[in-house]
Structure prediction request, 295 residues.
Amino acid sequence: MEENKNVSKNSWKRIFKKRWFFPAVYLAVAALLLTGVLWYQNAVNQGPDLAEDMENQLDDLREDQEAQDEEDATTVMQQQEVLEMPVSEDLQVEIVTKFYDYGADAEEQEQALISHQNKFYQSDGIAISTADHEAFDVTASLSGTVTEVKQDPLLGNVVKMEHEHGVSTYYASLDEVFAEEGNEVKQGETIGTAGQNTIGQDNGVHVHFEVRKDGTPVNPEHFINQPINKIVGPDKGEEDKEPAAEDEEKAEESSEENETPTEDDSSAEDENATESEDNTDAENDTESSSAMEHA
Prediction:
């Protein structure tokens, strides 16, 4: 064992005595130091670029996520948004004028007539008021775009909004108007305040609210709290009108039939006329004979 240790020490001593040993060690150390310095400089130079690239990637991911979240929220809103009354949820209101529905009974139809200058008009919407007849905020019943803001001599200030699925809403008899044409309004946002108009004076302070499907008025009460895609056009109005028209035509035809003489009646009239003419001729002949006898 001691001989092996002595041999190892002698070998290391021989190596240390070599002239190339220490220069080789110095060169190796210098190479390692130079490599470390170069690596550090490269890391320092590339660090800001890498950090900037990573920050840009994070920003892109964040924007994509926000866009996806917004799209998802819009989709959910469109799927879940339902038609609401154009007033605040905590406001106690009543419908003072109903929508004129041809399929309704006589009492409801009477409640849907508007009296103006001794004439009655059928209501295309509903009039909403409060028990105290005080002014109140009018809100958007659906999210949409304000397409028209005007002042009507009979209806007062009017705001029209367009929505998806061919649905549009009208808000009339407004006092103040906060919405402007072209505005994108969310459901529940205030667009004006209730006021009075000329044609609905009997209702006092109110808002006249209409819902239309492809331009045709529909009964708002039928679709309150219903999804917007469930709003459909009237399917009974025209059908109810057609039977009435048919009845009128039948009555006219019956009247014409009563007034038009039948062939039997015409023959009887001809016979009576002939008999009358024969009697007249006989009387004339008798008179002529009498005259001749007197002569």
